[in-house]
Amino acid sequence: MKKTGSILLVILLAFSCLISALADETVPSIKEAYAGKFDFGAAVPQSALSDGRLTKLILKHFSILTPENELKPDAVLDISRCREQAKEDETAVAVHFGSARPLLDFAKENGIKVHGHVLVWHSQTPKAFFHEGYDTANPMVSREVMLARMENYIREVMTWTNDRYPGVIVSWDVVNEAIDDQSKWLRKSSNWYKTIGEDYVARAFEYARKYAPEGTLLYYNDYNTANGGKLSGITRLLEQLIPEGNIDGYGFQMHHNLLDPGISLITKAVDSIAALGLRLRVSELDIGVKNPTERDLQKQKERYKAIMQLMLRYSDQTEAVQVWGLTDNMSWRTGENPLLFDKSRNPKPAFYGVIEAAKEAAAEEAAAGENGLP
Ligand code: GLA
Q1: What is the pLDDT of residues 342-358, one digit of tens each?
Q2: Ligand 1 contact via 284 beta carbon (within 6 Å)
Q3: Which of 19, 83, 203, 284 has the smallest number of CB atoms closer than 10 Å to its CB?
Q4: Alpha carbon 3 to its chain's center
Q5: Structure confidence at residue 369 (pLDDT)
Q6: What's this model's pTM, rounded to 2 decimal places?
């Protein structure tokens, strides 16, 4: 009896594995749905790379990845070594990439592109970086020293990544979130602003261009772009940067809620940045909804779909759309169910919204082709 029971159990287990494998096969791949249009990607925490179920999900759906935290300055700067070196040279910068390596290795081995995030940001950057001797007990460094540290940091990052992972990092967020939500102009509380002044954004792009391998796309990245006042500040900044010839594109973070901002405001923001002639990317897409009903999940699907339709309208200018995380329980907004896959890695209605947008666009193109339209 006991033996028959365990045989039955084994058969049942095998059957359920087969069912879930078959279910996996019937789920379409997002990157394939968008092939020929633009890359579709995700931010990935280092922990995901040691979970085979998540790496399978990544390989199936995403053609570009961003390390969620591992290329931010607080992960890359080696402050104790900086301190040592500062005894001889205040401008010297020491870096280490232990936490970024697993994702860069994974991307290299599997032929997946990486978007680098981020070189210059007011947040997740050690305060000591801005102080004499790399010690917050000392005064902040002069503009000249900080410019030299910025240049050295950017050179070290570009050189190390390009030497070991040539061709893997195709683009970078050079500066993140420089515009202040209140003043709609440069965030004066940023240590970059305090030490270097108004032109720190332009200088970051100048150095990034100087050291980036040829063909690397350089982005300014920000949130709340659909907020009218902030949009005008962001536009003003981009208009100052464009003539210097070092910026390639703009990254819309798009950490949204179900209905906020409205799609007309999002459209207006994308239309006006696109009109500047820059490359576009949606860099950090997620759409939060707490305790969702079935209806909310449908609305979330419609909102994802509308954003994808908008970016498909700009497919000639768009390099990538990236969601900020893999599954709802691994998101920085966990509790708001903001992503395409639930905690068991099952595709949500939102996932099918992303797929539908691509399929409908392809069908429209095919129909236009048959009618001899361009
Ligand atoms: C911003 C940053 C991201 C990430 C999110 C929240 O959008 O650009 O790197 O930190 O906040 O996690």
Answers
A1: 999 999 999 999 999 99
A2: yes
A3: 19
A4: 53
A5: 86
A6: 0.94
